[in-house]
């Protein structure tokens, strides 16, 4: 009990330190974007400066709406990765948003050594937080809240670095984050999981990720994902007018992915009933596959096909690859992020590469200069653009593996690695335990331990 | 067990066939609306073509927002009709959206034998999906997933046909779908239920629809309906400027309907406690009654009165008409769609007819040409418009009864009609079963079987 | 049982009377804003009247969006104050919205003795409903539905009166309602609770408000609050262009408040696990503190610090002040509204006063005339503005205490004060009882009664 109290105080102290740190850094570096206080763009009197003054106002409102929907998405996302520990996940979200504003600001918004934030920065911070939650999904249940906070502390700068390289350096088009969010998040988490592997502990829990939380969270989460994700995933398309393809493609992909889950599921799993959690996985997989290709697909049937393939890939991987990953590669994957984000993200990148190599001004029209500005102005051929897109995948995988390895090694240090028994207690210190036995995750774990 | 496995494979095969079919049809016919890729309307340089260039951009954004909210509504709707089988209902939604795009496209969007989709098409597909879910609500628990999919396959074209006749032929004003969604969906489902009636089976389950799911889904569903429905129901008002009446009328109607439920409920049901599910019914009834009249009512107290009447009608029908429907007319109605959608939809049509006959340019102002274009340009008198509105009700009821009868007869064919015992197993194959006994629908059914 | 039936009929009769009353009053006084039916502001042809015609349309859409989000917020709010009686709370919401339109209309919208409503009126009615729900949160479980309805009947006019004095008379800047919603609602409810105090009854229930509902409602409610509150709290900022500060400040404050809860919680409560309900409290406290200061804070780190302080204050008050309030001041506080709304609201007022006294045209730029119009046009100094802000706090506290006292005294009259046993039965007549034992509130109460 003394150790448990000490761990509680450690967590309290760490939170205090981190909150103080962000307040000090915010006070030093972060300012509101001065442009958002200039009301000029909405006033007809400053026509001279702005060629399309009347567009300023709705553009601003959209950025605001995006931040709103971004948060909606983020917290809907919680219900997938935070069933066992919503309180803990909310803690991570609260810290990551502040930290991501700082980390991304260093790369993007720095002018006269100040970081200027706007509603758009909140959307970027949301993207980052989504990747962190995916990573934590791979190790959930085997790390304590202190380790989760430290993991976020280390992963956020690497995410910002990867995003910066892809967007500003390689000029890769990845508006919905197939690479930056899904692939990076999944493989970072898997690498941490691999390094944290402890032979004795994990053997006992082999059945752990077979089941799925059969509860109301999956329903609420799936509903929120359908509502908020399409808008979120298209939030960083270069210009608003390029959005409808991204949004519609994502909707079509969601529909096909959901329907297609029913095709393979009864064949792969002869026993057991199809649950909403599987359809939530299909929703996420189709979002991962549409991240890059969403704004590039010019025909609805392409989106249907991609959604179809994503759900099949996700189900096959969950059936055949996950056991290999666990037994041969010694990599636990609590929430199945490899099936739901990792592989579909890579599939999405291949699809995006294919579409980039096929892009012509004929099909894309005015849209070409929005999606592939370098192709439109002639400084890259479509084949070159496709190569850069593929290079983005390699960079992302390398950075995720490298970063995950280092992070995992740090989390393994003796100071942080509480012994298994205490660890279990600690991870429950922050976990919402429903007294009516609704904490299915905990329930499963206990059953897992018994078996 | 072998039969169960076979049924699972049949479902898998049917889904595969349907998904393949829609992909092929989409590849052949469906293209993105080329106008959504032309960025002209948002550029100040093309003033010549478009008289109000600056309005193009927000109009586009609104269509996007509607698709978003439409889906939100649709999935909120799920939580009413899908308590026992959210996974199954999601499957129906995923298929119906794709199928509705195709079916409605044949009537509306066909140019050079292509269907051009835009965000507005997604809203139309949502409307259709809502009607399908209402119909399935009448037979829920007595059809297996294969029958549900076939029912959607047949009902969608009939829905599109009815919508086309009402909107483009009879020029009926029905922006919120009192007729097209609520009345059509309810009576189609009831007709299917009547034809599917099996004397021995149903007698055992007579108590089935007395209770209501007393759980978190009703709360979440009601909240989502309050948030999303007003915006959704006004999504197809001719022009955005005509919306505020529709939205505000629906809000006032919701409030009055909720309060009025408490008036009659304690008198009708002397025992039992008022639950959120009853208030959700009141919410839906007030939405059904406001569907047609929403954009026509010019005074807030009219909306209060209509909401008041809708909830009283719904409660009285549930208390006195439902038993007659079940015992005399041999029509089961699992979710009470007759009380919640059917009768309030008809009431809404009568209200809309009354308002149409009273419409004057004096009260409506500029709005007249938006709500009743034919009255505004003088080609119809208000009395004639009212007659056409009423004719719309007749056409809808005939098409619903005819279509429901044929669909029910097809679903009764021996090939599909699994024996009762297996049927029960099958309908559970796709049903989310909460291990903590939260599947209240299943619970009720079992109790029903015991009694 | 006869008494119970009588109480049910009393409630039914009261609802009937109230609904009839609002319908008659609406029919007499309330009309739709004629401007919302004039389509002029969206037509380029009426440039003459409106200097910025193109802005008319998006402004209108925003008001619509706000009404939507306002309702979203309101119903999300329910899940905090209505766990034990969602149906009862929905009833209060349905009545209060209608009543608030009338009461606020008397002060604000009255022209030729008509009240003109628009989407903006719905947002104002939402603000009022939020305050009523906060007040009811203080007495939840100790009043029956009839008393709740009467409390709303009396509090709504007082709320409208207080709002009118602060906004139009003292010219206090309080866009997010630190004073009008949070402080007024909390102290009104506490005063009612004090007057309703019954020594024998309440002693038995001393443990009542220690625990928290550890369930799905807290998660869903917190998610919805994060999604909808920032937009809602900034809904009445003078001009849309002034919003981003309010929204971003609230987001930053939410993040810091959530993280900071983990700092103090393990120290104050050595046993027990941190639950989502605590983080929901932190969310609400940070919203209360940002209500007034949201649009005044010009640096993000200020929002972080304010959120940090709000959650610490709320936790310390819940640990040390609540027991004193209960035992010494004989004031029960079922939902802890004093900690979550009362004190953070006062803290927010002090912060707003400080910021008002520091406001300079240098920092605020064009924004000054939006936030402090009287300072901008020179008719008040910043010191004077700060004094008026502080005076607003005094007025609010006096009106809340006075109104709460009178309301409590009325609710104590013998006619309404059902004996304890019946009271308990009655309050359950409207309460959703989950058959699987998920009605934690009821559960706690029963345990409380046993101890």
From TrEMBL, chains A, B, C:
Annotated TM spans: 6-29, 89-109, 121-140, 146-166, 178-196, 216-235, 247-268, 301-321, 342-364, 388-411
Signal sequence range: none
UniProt KW keywords: Ammonia transport, Cell membrane, Glycoprotein, Membrane, Transmembrane, Transmembrane helix, Transport
Xref: Pfam families: Ammonium_transp (PF00909)
UniProt-listed GO biological process terms: ammonium homeostasis
Family annotation (InterPro entries): Ammonium/urea_transptr, NH4_transpt_AmtB-like_dom, RhesusRHD
GO CC term (a single one): plasma membrane
GO molecular function: ammonium channel activity
Subcellular location: Cell membrane
Keyword Cell division on entry: no
UniProt keyword annotation of ATP-binding present: no
Membrane topology, as annotated: Multi-pass membrane protein
Domain Ammonium transporter AmtB-like: from-to ranges: 23-424
Protein family according to the UniProt entry: Belongs to the ammonium transporter (TC 2.A.49) family. Rh subfamily.
Protein name, per record: Rh family B glycoprotein
Organism annotation: Coturnix japonica
Gene name for this UniProt entry: LOC107324437
